[in-house]
Amino acid sequence: MLSEARGRIPRWSPTEAREAQQNGAILIDARDSGDIEREGSIPGSVVIPLSVLEWRIDPTSPFKLDELVDSAGPLIVVCNDGYSSSLAAARLRELGRFDAGDLIGGFRAWKLDGLPVD
Q: Which CATH number does the domain housing residue 16 bear?
């Protein structure tokens, strides 16, 4: 299932994701609040737990976030290690966000690469 999902989505390295963010991509931090409190977050990322991500992105949902539904840049989903984000990004593509992908290695790879963390 994971390899099939990854075959359908674009994947960004931490450095590529940072550059994409600077050029209009939206990073979605889908980690749980405990992980974010312990480890920090990526500056400028939008925090949306995996459990509600589909509701926030689905244009037909009453719980959608307009700034995400209407965004022109790609959506890059971030989890801890880059596993659940791949599955989430594949699901977002099924909802019509064909530019959705994920961060290779997740937040921990971002942090290990020395990129900014709040």
A: 3.40.250.10
Amino acid letter, 17: A
Find the Cα–Cα–Cα–Cα dihedral 47, 53, 25, 101, rounded to 10°: 130
Range of the domain at 15: 2-112
Residue type, 88: A
In a domain, 117, yes or no: no
Q: Has residue 118 been placed in a domain?
A: no
Dihedral sign (CA 72, 5, 92, 80)? negative
Tokens of 90: 């594949």
What residue spans of 1-118 are helical by DSSP H?
Answer: 2-6, 14-22, 33-39, 53-57, 66-69, 84-94, 106-112
pTM score above 0.85: yes
Domain count for the chain:
1
Condensed to tens digits (0 to 9), the pLDDT of residues 81-95 reads 988 999 999 999 988
DSSP reduced 3-state for 28? strand
